[in-house]
Amino acid sequence: MKTKGKMIAYWTVTSLLVFAIMLSGIGQLMQYGGNVELVTNLGYPLYILTILGIWKVLGAIALLVPGFPRLKEWVHAGIFFLMTGAALSHVLANDFGDYGFNIILPLSYAALNIASWVLRPQSRTLGSLLGNTEKRAKKQSFAFK
């Protein structure tokens, strides 16, 4: 994929992800809509809404802020675990929702998250371990000459 096309795809997918995660986090913080019912149906205490809401809002912000590639990696990992854990929680509690909505929605967020991570530009990656090792070796070889 060409760089410009990849960049457009990245920002489209990431914008959708950030929008979804931000709205979800705000809804949980405000205990809006069916959030209370969803959490109580799963057997979780209500204070989990505050914890998850804060994490989601901060994660959404972190994905938009320039720099901090390690933080972005952690945010992507956190969103993946959060969304797949939510889907699994609903499956184990036999709380599928209408037409499987309670499973499909978090898994679609996880898919958006994976797409955003895969499409991310080089400036938002930590770099390959091999590449970092080679750079470090070159610096060390100059230091000992």
Rg (C-alpha, Å): 19 Å
The helix fraction, in percent, is over 70%
DSSP strand tally: 0
Q: From N to C, what is the helix and strand string?
A: HHHHHH
Tally of individual helices = 6
Strand content: under 5%
What is the average of the pLDDT values?
A: 88
Low-confidence stretches: none
Query: Judging from the principal axes of the Cα atoms, what is the shape?
Result: elongated
- How does the helix and strand content classify structurally? mainly alpha
Distance N terminus to C terminus? 42 Å
Biggest sheet layout:
none
Written account of the structure:
- It is a single chain.
- The chain is built from 6 helices and no strands.
- The chain is mostly helical.
- The longest helix is centred in the first third of the chain and has 27 residues, at 3-29.
Name its key features.
0% strand, mainly alpha, 145 residues
SSE inventory with pairings:
Layout (H helix, E strand, L loop, with lengths): L2 H27 L5 H8 L4 H18 L4 H24 L8 H19 L9 H15 L2
Task: Describe the structure in brief.
With 145 residues, the protein is an all-alpha fold. The chain is 77% helix and 0% strand.
